[in-house]
From TrEMBL, chain A:
Pfam families: Sdh_cyt. GO terms for molecular function: metal ion binding. This is Succinate dehydrogenase. The lineage of its organism: Bacteria, Bacillati, Actinomycetota, Actinomycetes, Micrococcales. Coiled coil: none annotated. Keywords: Heme, Iron, Membrane, Metal-binding, Transmembrane, Transmembrane helix. It comes from Agromyces bracchium. One of its GO terms (cellular component) is membrane. Gene3D superfamilies: Fumarate reductase/succinate dehydrogenase, transmembrane subunit. It is found in: Membrane. InterPro entries: SQR/QFR_C/D, SuccDH_FuR_B_TM-su. The chain crosses the membrane at residues 27-50, 70-88, 109-129. Its main location: membrane.
Automatic annotation (TrEMBL), chain B:
InterPro entries: SdhC_prok, SQR/QFR_C/D, Succ_DH_cytb556, SuccDH_FuR_B_TM-su. It comes from Agromyces bracchium. The keyword Iron applies. This is Succinate dehydrogenase, cytochrome b556 subunit. The chain crosses the membrane at residues 35-53, 82-101, 113-130. Its main location: membrane. Its cofactor is heme. Pfam families: Sdh_cyt (PF01127). The lineage of its organism: Bacteria, Bacillati, Actinomycetota, Actinomycetes, Micrococcales. One of its GO terms (cellular component) is membrane. SUPFAM superfamilies: Fumarate reductase respiratory complex transmembrane subunits.
Length: 148, 140
């Protein structure tokens, strides 16, 4: 027989086992957000405000930055924190505006897949990048290349 | 039955300073903070997808990367970058506001004031960024 509880009965806590992933997602959004403010503002300042700004960005500019492990790790950390932060935010939006079912599964699956592909791609690009590719026109290369 | 009790009820007089929506949340600072955070977040996410792919072109060839990054240096894209930076700066400052409201009881009580501080800091930051960026974009 179903017992109807008194209206003021405190909600019973659902039986919980293992880690609460939604709680850690909530914490991740705030922790990564604080770090991203520093990383993204630094990125925007160095690439858009210093010197000629966006006009100065070309292959040689990127090659010069990634010759320094400091900027390699800055960009890779920013990539991982920002993409997971953004994909998790998009997951929240998908949950808000779709009902559980095939469409929601497809959208969340697409988010997960694109996130994994872009994290792998971006990380490989930063760490396997060759600033002085053989056979490229010297004027396109960073000044430290033997060909330049 | 007297005429007074059967008369159509008249809406109460609107207070002089009617709050938009007339509720604690709807139409107020908290709602607009949420709306703007969501819209800027989605916009930044889709830019990030494109930006990872265009940067990955450095692994293809200097020519391929320079051809694509060159399109970021046109006047129209320069204005787009103003919008992008505006979205990022709002999302950053408002995100910090959300964190303060979550963890600090003073900020929870004063979340409306904090929203206007976010707007003020956004204006100051954009005043620093936009003229310099547009000078870079529109000069040769």
């Amino acid at each position: 027989m179903t017992v109807i509880e008194s209206p003021r009965t405190p909600a019973r806590r659902a039986p919980r086992r293992g880690v609460n992933l939604e709680k850690w997602g909530w914490i991740y959004m705030r922790a990564s957000g604080v770090v991203l403010v520093v990383l993204v503002f630094g990125h925007l300042f160095v690439n858009l405000m210093v010197g000629e700004g966006v006009k100065a960005i070309d292959f040689g500019f990127v090659g010069g930055k990634w010759a320094d492990p400091f900027w390699q790790w800055w960009d890779v950390l920013m990539l991982w924190l920002a993409l997971i932060h953004g994909a998790n935010g998009m997951r929240t939006i998908v949950s808000d505006y779709t009902n559980p079912g095939t469409v929601q599964r497809i959208l969340k699956g697409a988010l997960l897949l694109s996130t994994i592909v872009l994290l792998v791609l971006g990380t490989l690009v930063v760490f396997t990048f060759d600033p002085c590719p053989a056979g490229s026109p010297a004027e396109l290369l960073p000044s430290f290349c033997p060909a330049a | 039955m007297s005429a007074t009790t059967t008369r159509t009820p008249i809406a109460p007089e609107t207070p002089a300073k009617q709050k938009p929506g007339g509720t604690l949340y709807r139409g107020r600072e908290g709602m607009w903070s949420w709306v703007l955070h969501r819209i800027t977040g989605v916009a930044i996410f889709f830019f990030l997808l494109v930006h990872i792919l265009d940067t990955a072109l450095v692994r293809v060839s200097p020519e391929a990367y320079n051809a694509v990054i060159g399109t970021y240096q046109t006047p129209i894209m320069g204005l787009g970058e103003v919008a992008l930076v505006g979205a990022i700066v709002f999302h950053a400052f408002n995100g910090l506001r959300v964190i303060l409201v979550d963890f600090w009881s003073w900020a929870t009580r004063n979340q409306k004031v904090l929203f206007y501080i976010v707007i003020a800091l956004w204006v100051i930051t954009m005043l620093g960024f936009v003229p310099r960026h547009l000078m870079n974009v529109f000069s040769h």
